[in-house]
Amino acid sequence: MANWVIGVDVGGTFTDFTARNTESGESCIHKRPSTPDDPSRAVLEGLRELKEKAGIPDDDIERFAHGTTVATNALLQRKGATVGVVTTKGFRDLLEIGRQVRPLIYDLQIDAPAPLAERENRLEVSERIGSEGQVVTELTDETLNTLIGELKALEAVDSVAVCFLFSFLNGAHEKKAATAIRAALPGLYVSTSAEVQPEFREYERFSTTLINAFLQPEVGRYMDRLKGAMSNAAPKAKFGIFQSSGGLMSVERASRYPVRTALSGPAAGAVGAAAAAGASEIENVITLDMGGTSTDVCLIQGGKTTIASMRDIAGFRIRLPMVDIHTVGAGGGSIAHIGTDGLMKVGPESAGAVPGPACYGKGGTKPTVSDANVLLGRLPRSLAGGELVVDRSKAEAAVTGLAQTLGISLTKAALGITGIVTSNMTRAIRAVSVEKGHDPRDFTLMPFGGAGGLHAADVARSLGIKRVLVPYAPGILCAEGLIQSDLQENYVATCRTPLGESLAQVRKAAASLSQQAEKWLALEAADAADGRQILSFDMRYIGQNYELPVEVSESTGTPEVPDIAKLREDFFAVHERTYGHVDREAPVEIVNLRLRVVASLGRKAAGNTQPAGSGEAQSTQEVWFSEGSPIDTPIYARENLPQGTILQGPAIITQLDATTVVPPWADIKIDSALNMIMEVKNV
After folding, report:
1. Phi-psi region of 125 (alpha: psi -120 to 50; beta: other; left: phi over 0)
2. CB distance 115 to 190 below 8 Å
3. What is the tens place of the pLDDT at every residue in 606-647?
4. Chain-centroid distance, C-alpha 649
5. Neighbouring residues of 620: CB distance < 8 A, sequence distance ≥ 6
6. Helices in 378-451 by DSSP H: which ranges?
7. Cα→Cα distances 106→98, 101, 102, 111, 420, Å
8. Mean pLDDT calculated for residue range 396-405
9. What φ, ψ does residue 634 adopt, rounded to 5°?
10. What phi and psi, each to the nearest 5 degrees, are found at residue 534?
11. Burial of 392 (0-12, 13-18, 19+ CB in 10 A)
């Protein structure tokens, strides 16, 4: 009987797996080193090992959920398709002009990244849709024939983005052009802005569509390759890809809209964090997902992840619903170096999975955060269940050059590395909390990822956070989030309406989005337990340049549009929380409607195995918590710590997927959900 759900998250250093039996709640986790040259190799090999480890027959896998970094890496490395752009006459340079904002306001030398499509590959056609959706200039067959000839003359273009003005109001011209291109050039991938993101603001819509076209061939080939292999490895499994907005979509839609996967893995971690915190009855948390290459932070309030509608990734603008995650180059593999100012820096460059930190013995020679933790005694001798054996001598060799350059001891250099990376993560948390009107002291810090627990206490202390929650399996929480996730789809419609006028058009647009949602539920979520529709509006004061998202209703059917008075009060509440003030007399308008439809898969909660150990320390080792002198610190295996265990710091707690450091100024308790709750003192 097919009753296993498997989640796999591909990280920079490790590929993480978690499996759960939907009938019994039995679960199993697994890790193996990533294969950056071809992520599917680690996925397939790790899946084989997981099935052997847990005794899962191929036919018993019901669903396979995948968080992928293929799109993210393609953007970061600019390793995607050679793209052409078809746009309205006079607008081919819009992608280059952008918003005319410098990447760094005080750096007069740095340039914005070059567009993903060369200027000679950006073609113009005579057509025009007006600001009310009316046809101003017809797109003729003659114009299309000329366009096809120009596309055929372009060299090596294998994907095309079709971006016309006001297509979010009337996409007929884009559809007509795409149909003609596909018929004449069947080998070409085609993305239209009316399909990718039919929303007000040309630059953001054009940029998002171009990124989608840039990613389509690379991601499409990866999806096809992995889906083909999965048909043998798990023939009865439904294949779901995690999207940046926090839910699963079909592999077919992921291939069609790969831009939606740009933050796939980190978003899964936020979903897993919300579920883990909920098990301990904690609703407000700030996540600290520290892996081998970077750290992702996210604010979760009331058990819900914060959703943003726009992000820049690798300097490219994406306008889509995404879990609001802030990323910094601070991971276990982040490399320490001397900057041009003679001061030590950490990151953003990372040793990654290959060659990795020096202490892993895979060829790395540069000093990293992991090497510093080894020298400070904070990492055990083996990681990932023995997959990696730590070599202290190689860590010493890597950090020695840095210490000699600065004229300090190895210990001081290592403490400096960990202190800098802590500061980098602290700034990232301020970006999602203090800078958005939230006091981090009102939240619980949740570290996860392989390295989160090593630095969580220091980060919490620097922010004044008193409580830290370390989940049951922190190193594979992103994979856990994948199997906790529901199916999800997002719809948007622009309907600019001042509050004070009739809401008839708004209600009509909401009903149209709801009809699309019902069709999606019938087509792709027939096996779901239920379907919910969450309606939100992008609202602003008339004359403002940007909007605030305001959630207005949630329903199992067509969501209700509240009356004008309620909408105004909801907007004022969000505006005051965000900016600290409101003007109740100023006119307000609705700009966009957003509908998120969620189909629950009704999975059984994990049945975490109750430890049978006595809670005794396995050994002790010297650990440096400050420059003074090392402290003899007990080392505990987490699988030996039963519910109710209380440990006074200092302590090191090890497990298959992560290591947690409890400094002398903290203590820790195992709660009923088998999460570890750390209380930080002297903050």
Report:
1. beta
2. no
3. 556 667 667 788 889 999 999 889 999 999 999 889 999 999
4. 33
5. 632, 633, 634, 635
6. 392-406, 410-432
7. 19, 11, 9, 12, 23
8. 94
9. -70, 145
10. -115, 120
11. middle
- Are the beta carbons of 71 and 262 closer than 8 angstroms? yes
Sole residue written with tokens 């003030």? 581
Q: How far apart are CA 531 and CA 422, in angstroms?
A: 41
CA atoms within 13 A on the CB side of 88: 22
Whether the upstream peptide bond of residue 650 has omega within 30° of 0, thus cis, is yes
The answer to whether residue 258 scores a pLDDT higher than 70 is yes
Rounded Cα gap, residues 580 and 604, in angstroms? 42
Q: Write out the CATH class of domain 80-218.
A: alpha beta
* Distance of alpha carbon 81 from alpha carbon 185, whole angstroms: 16
Question: Which among 645, 648, 616 is positioned nearest to 631, based on CA atoms?
Answer: 648
Among 364, 367, 287, 363, which Cα is nearest to 334's? 367
Longest dimension (CA), the chain: 81
Region 486-600: CATH code: 3.30.1490
Tokens 């992702």 map to which residue? 296
Q: Which two tokens stand for residue 260?
A: 């939606």
- Give the distance, in angstroms, between the CA of residue 295 and the centroid of all CA atoms in the same chain: 11
The secondary structure of the chain in percent helix, strand, coil, rounded to multiples of 5, reads 35, 30, 35
Question: Using CA atoms in the order 53, 55, 60, 63, what is the torsion angle rounded to 10 degrees?
Answer: -20
The model's pTM: 0.87
Q: What's at 266, amino acid-wise?
A: P
Q: Which fold has domain 4-74+220-261?
A: Nucleotidyltransferase; domain 5 (3.30.420)
**Alpha-carbon distance 534 to 455, whole Å?**
37
Domain with CATH 3.30.1490 in the chain: 486-600
Q: Name the residue among 386, 388, 261 with its Cα closest to residue 333.
A: 388
Q: What is the DSSP letter of 105?
A: T
As annotated, the residues of the chain forming the CATH 3.30.420.40 domain(s) are 4-74+220-261
What distance in Å separates the CA atoms of residue 330 and residue 327, rounded to the nearest whole number?
9
Query: Rounded to whole angstroms, how far apart are CA atoms 6 and 658?
Result: 20
Separation of alpha carbons 449 and 635, rounded Å: 20
Q: Band of the pLDDT at 131, cuts 50, 70, 90?
A: very high
* Residue ranges of the chain that CATH labels 3.40.50: 80-218
User: In the prediction, which pLDDT does 153 show?
Assistant: 93
Distances (CA, A) of 476 to 60, 262, 264, 326, 677: 22, 20, 15, 19, 18
Please give the average per-residue pLDDT across 499-511, as a whole number. Answer: 92
Q: Which two tokens stand for residue 477?
A: 């929480």
Could you give the percent of the chain with pLDDT greater than 90?
61
Exposed/middle/buried for 526, CB within 10 Å: 0-12, 13-18, 19+? exposed
188: left (phi > 0), else alpha (psi -120 to 50), else beta?
beta
Beta bridge partners of 300: 285, 305
- Does residue 57 have a cis bond before it (omega within 30 degrees)? no
Q: How crowded is the C-beta side of 643, counted as CA atoms within 13 Å? A: 8
- Residue 90, both tokens: 């006079």
Backbone angles phi, psi at 193, to 5 degrees: -65, -25
Cβ-Cβ contacts under 8 Å for 179 (sequence gap 6 or more): none
Alpha-carbon dihedral of residues 293, 299, 302, 308, nearest 10 degrees? Answer: -100
Residue 37 near residue 73 (C-beta atoms within 8 A): no
> Can you give the length of the chain in residues?
683
Q: Are 255 and 223 in contact (CB under 8 A)?
A: yes
Written as six digits, the tokens of 669 are 């308790």
